[in-house]
Each structure stands twice: as C-alpha cells, then as structure tokens.
Amino acid sequence: MESVFIVVGLLVIFFLVIQKRYLKQEELKDSIYKKKGPLLSMQESAFFNALVSAVGQHGVVLAKVSMANVISPLETEKKRWFIANNRIAKSYFDFVVCDPRTLEVRVVIEFDNGKPLDKGKIERQKLLMHVCKSASIPLIGTSIKHSYQVSRLRRLLAAHIDLIEPDKEVRFCKRCGSPMVIKIASLGEHKGRRFFTCSRQPQCTYTENYNVVFAEEELTND
To answer: What top-level branch of life does the organism fall under (predicted)?
Structure first.
C-alpha cells in the first residue's frame, strides 16, 4: 500500500514539474519585443565620434557602461554591501575610455545633456563624484556644444592616457633647465594622474601639469 502512495506522489511531482516548465515556455512566447533604436542620441553620437578621434589607437571608448561592471563595494558586512551595490546597480557611466590591451577603465566622462538641473540629475552627479573618487577613477565632465574640438578633448585626456609617446615629448625644467621626466601621482586628490617633474629631484622640486602641447596648425585643423 505504501508503494502505491509513493508511485502516486512521484507522478504528481512529475506532472507539476512538467506543467511549471510548460507554463514558463508559454509566458516567454507571449512576450513580444521591439528594437528601441540608436543607443545614443544625436548629440551623444557626435561627442562619441569626437572622443574616438581624440583617443585614436591609445584607448577604447565605450558608452552607457553599467557602474556595476566597473566598480564594486568594498563593504565586508553583507547588509552594507547590498545597500552599496543597490546604489550603483541601475546606474551607468556615460562614456569610459579603457586601456586598449586590458580594457581596464582609465577615465570616466560624464556628458551634460543641457537639461535643467533637477533632483535626479543632482543625485546622479553626487553618486558619480563619490564612486569615482572612492575608486580612484578620474572623472571628466563635458557639456553640449555644436561642434567638438578634438584637440581640446586630447588636452583633457592627456593627464590620464598616453596620447603621445613619452620619448617624443621633451620638456626642460623652467627653474634649472634640466630635462623633465613623467611620473604618476600616488597620493592625494590627483592620485593616478601623470605629471612632469624635474629629473634633478630632490635637489629641484619643480613640477608641471601633463598637458599635450599642439602646434597652431593642428589646432586650426580640428
């Protein structure tokens, strides 16, 4: 008698599993989708193309990148980790410039669409500044313009990405005349940024921002 109940129980479980799987398939078939169109607006596309031209072969430009794919909470306590993760789960970076070999994010770029400031926009800016600062990722803000000058974008990016070969950029110390060398800041708010420093350190402590100097002819062509 017990064996009969066991068989009946197994049959009930089997039919429940089949029914559940069938219903899932039916639900999936009932869902219809459509293509939303371009990933970027016309203004965003114009900026994207200018950014790609500015970066060239020295980086990979990606748009609308999920924050959760770039950063993760450092919290060890589960509840705090989930709270921190929920803050970034549905957010994204407008544009990121990655290392061409490893695709590690080097710079985050926030594109201002020109819309009036509201609560949502303010909260997003606060989140962006906080996550980038805590994760030591440089954040650059840009605004809408009718045309984008590639040379200006290069200047903004030059502190974070090798847009020129270091051995071709020769500078001399304005204090003592010695050749300058490129170093990367390891502390402070400029951590991770490149800068020029005198090769005679510590005797000479002169430093200079890492900015690409373009010829006038190139500036007029961009």
So the answer is: Bacteria
